[in-house]
Design brief:
41% helix; Transferase(Phosphotransferase), domain 1; 258 residues; 17% strand; five-stranded antiparallel sheet; Phosphorylase Kinase, domain 1; 2 domains; alpha+beta
Length: 258
C-alpha cells in the first residue's frame, strides 16, 4: 500500500529540516561542502542528528589535508567540535598506516581507504579516552561513528582557543617545563606517545596548555614509539629555543630502554 500524500509530505519536511541543520551557517560553497559531505559522511551526520548526538552543525573552524573541524551544538545547547576525516584524502596511504601498524589495539584492519579512515577516527577517540582517564588536559571525547568524531569544544561562543604559537608567553621556561611534564604523564600514566607534537597541536584555553590531535598517537608498545617520542621532544625544543628557553635533551627527560 502506497504512503498517503500527507505522510510523504511529512517525511520531505523532516528531511529538509535535517539538511537545513547541517547546512546552516556553513560558510562554504556547495562544491567544497560536497568534498567533505560525501553520501556516506552525510548519512553519518544525519544519524547523529536523528539520534540526538547533534542538534546542529555549523561552520568549519579548521581545515586540513586529512580532516575538517566543524562547530556543533548538542541538544542541550552545549558547544561541540565535530571532526570529519575526509574520505577522499590520500594521506592515509601515504604516511598514516605506520601509526596503526604495530598498535596492538588495531589488528587485522582491512586496508581499503574507508576502513583505514574509520579506524583513524576511532584511534583518536580511544587515545583521547586514555589521556583523559590519566588526568591529562585534552578535549573530552564524546562520540565517534565511522569517520566522524565528536569532542568537547575548546573555546567560547564558536571561537576556538588559540594555539601555543599564537600566544605571547610570559615566563616561557615555565611553559616549557609544564609541557614536558604533560608529555611525561602521557607516557607514564596514559602509556601513549603523541607522535606529532608541535606548537600547532597545543591549545591555550584560559592560560593553560592543552594537547590536541591524537589520531597518530601510539601506545608505548608500538615498535616506533621511542622514535616518535624523540621527535616530539625535538619539535618542542626547537620551538622553545626560538623563545630563548634553555631546553633539555630527550635522554635527560626520558629513560627509555633501547
Amino acid at each position: 500500500m502506497s504512503d498517503k500524500p500527507e505522510e510523504k509530505l511529512r517525511r520531505r519536511e523532516e528531511r529538509y529540516d535535517r539538511e537545513r541543520r547541517v547546512r546552516i551557517k556553513v560558510g562554504e560553497d556547495l562544491e567544497t561542502m560536497e568534498g567533505v559531505f560525501d553520501g556516506r559522511t552525510l548519512m553519518t551526520v544525519m544519524h547523529m542528528l536523528n539520534t540526538g548526538r547533534l542538534s546542529e552543525l555549523q561552520g568549519a573552524m579548521k581545515s586540513g589535508k586529512e580532516s575538517r573541524i566543524y562547530h556543533g551544538i548538542d541538544p542541550k545547547g552545549n558547544e561541540l567540535a565535530v571532526k570529519i576525516y575526509l574520505t577522499s584524502s590520500s594521506i592515509f596511504r601515504q604516511g598514516r598506516l605506520k601509526y596503526i601498524r604495530g598498535d596492538p589495539r588495531f589488528k587485522d584492519i582491512p586496508h581499503d581507504t574507508r576502513s583505514l579512515i574509520d579506524q583513524w577516527a576511532l584511534k583518536e577517540f580511544k587515545n583521547l579516552q586514555l589521556a583523559k582517564e590519566a588526568g591529562l588536559a585534552v578535549p573530552t571525547p564524546i562520540y565517534v561513528e565511522k569517520n566522524v568524531l565528536v569532542m568537547e569544544f575548546i573555546g567560547k561562543n564558536g571561537v576556538p582557543a588559540p594555539h601555543l604559537r599564537e600566544v605571547p608567553l610570559q615566563a616561557a621556561s615555565s611553559w616549557y617545563d609544564k609541557i614536558v611534564e604533560m608529555l611525561k604523564d602521557l607516557y607514564d600514566k596514559a602509556k601513549l606517545v603523541h607522535g606529532d607534537l608541535s606548537e600547532y597541536n597545543i591549545l591555550v584555553p584560559d592560560g593553560y596548555p592543552m594537547l590536541i590531535d591524537f589520531a597518530q598517537a601510539v601506545t608505548i608498545e608500538h615498535p616506533e614509539a621511542r622514535e616518535f617520542l624523540k621527535r616530539d621532544i625535538e619539535n618542542l625544543n626547537n620551538y622553545f629555543k626560538g623563545l630563548n628557553v634553555r631546553t633539555r635533551s630527550f635522554e635527560r627527560m626520558f629513560k627509555v630502554e633501547e
